[in-house]
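Reopening this one. Same input as before:
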Amino acid sequence: MLKTPSLNLSLLTAAQAQKHVTVNESFIRLDNVAQLVVQSRSLSTPPSRPDNGDCYLIPETGSEEWGQNPQAIACYSDGAWEYITPRDGWRTWSLEDDALLVFKNGVWSELTSDNGQDDDNRFNQLTSVGIQTTADETNRLSLKSPASLFDYEENDHRLNINKQSETDNCSIIFQTQYTGHAEFGLSGSNDFQVNVSSDGQNFKTAIQTNQNGDVSFPQGVNAARLVSGITDAGGVDTVLGPPNLTTVLTARAAFDFEANVLYFSAFYVDRPTQYLGGACAVIAASPISGSVMRAGLYELGQANGNNWSAGAQVADLGMCPADETGHKNFDLDTPITLQAGWYLHAIGANADGIEVRALDCLTPGTYLLTQFSSGGNSDFRITGIGRYLFSDSIPELFNGPLPQQFPSVLKDRVATSYTRQLFLVPKWKRWT
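Same output, byte for byte:
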């Protein structure tokens, strides 16, 4: 009798008697192997009470009548077993394994395995894959899982992410409820960047490294986050920030105080901070014996046009002699905690002829600041980027809250957004 080459179905012959028998046998065989689902591939003997239509994969070491048909498909129909020999590439769903199996080189194995050393058993040219979720046109590979593992083979594992041109994006984005808040990779250039965002649309570059390995901080670096939480920082040993940043101090100059004039500079605190006071370096003393300098700390008030108002007084830093040179430390008896926000240093003297060391810095960020030398050579060492603002004109501070021996006449200075003339420097107990 003629048979079909693939499923071995019997073909009808001319003038064949009882054609229905041949046709029914072929239908039963076709019903067994089409959309093949098997109950198990581990039973070595036939089950005692199979249901009509049940199919099993016979293991290589079967017994009883199954031992005569290893690796065959056993299908139960009308009280008898039919044994079907699979061909390479046949597939079936195993209810016992909850897995899709493929027959290759005489072995049934899960479709996701590499089938021994066979490199042909793989998925290729799939349009999308969704694992426990739905893939779409953009996210063609989608996974919903509490974790994922990319393991090593032959000691190594490298994850390669490629882009076409330098101006394209090649990055990893971290989201909260599908809104991106952090990203690292090559974004619009070949420089490695770490970017952050509050809305998932507008990203700011926090860290950038070019192809030479030079690191920059486009938004500035916060000194507080670069100092250990238990490191004291204050007095002549004050050191804040990393010591190896490029020096951006553009000038050290003498700043002349005028008698009975107040000067203001602002600084920013990003977290609750233990504050000790302030310091300045007097390089030329007043010729008037007994002259003094006095300083105070205030909250930065509200904007008023191009100017700013002073807020509530935080601390009176007290007085230091102005008739001798050297470092002037306006230390509080008890440190106070400053909450996050902007603050104003106010400083003035009751005599002319006093010169302090002015430090001209650049944009906001971190700094390394150390008092050194003494007397007329008193100075500050500074590298990195200082985070200060100099107030250029604040007429609304007339009759301000400093003691009356300092009539509040404000000295106008060069208008600028960020620090010029850092003549009073904050001193910290520690960053918390």
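So the earlier flakiness isn't reproducible anymore. For the record, Residues 17 and 93 are 38 Å apart (CA to CA).
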